[in-house]
Amino acid sequence: MTNFNNLLNDFAHLMSGMSSVAGGMKSEVEQNMQNFFQQCALQAGFVRRDEFDNLSERFEQAVSRIKALEQQLSEKNHKDDTNKNSKKSS
């Protein structure tokens, strides 16, 4: 009976060790798959979300700046036209 108990204990220990190995393999496979998909995304020209958000913010700032400059230019042109018209009237 003790031999059978020893056999069961050894078997349980073996299964526990196999569980640890399987867990390690799972982590390694997950890491390899993540690396593979990241490499595919880079080759396809995709960007990370934080890079996209950063570029979107910079784009919005540039658009706002362009609109402000266009407004300033329009106002300056309007003043120049007004000054030209007032000089012609004089």
Distinctive features:
90 residues, mainly alpha, 2 domains, 93% helix
Structural write-up:
By secondary structure, the protein is an all-alpha fold. The chain folds into two domains: 1-46; 47-90. It is 93% helix and 0% strand. It contains two helices and no strands. The longest helix is centred in the N-terminal third of the chain and has 43 residues, at 2-44.
Topology:
Blueprint: H1 2-44, H2 49-89
Strand content: under 5%
Are there runs of 5+ residues with pLDDT below 50, and where? none
N- to C-terminal distance? 123 Å
User: Globular, elongated, flat, extended or rod-shaped: what is the shape?
Assistant: rod-shaped
Radius of gyration over all CA atoms, rounded: 35 Å
Structure described in brief:
The protein is mostly helical and 90 residues long. The chain has two domains: 46 residues; 44 residues. It has two helices and no strands.
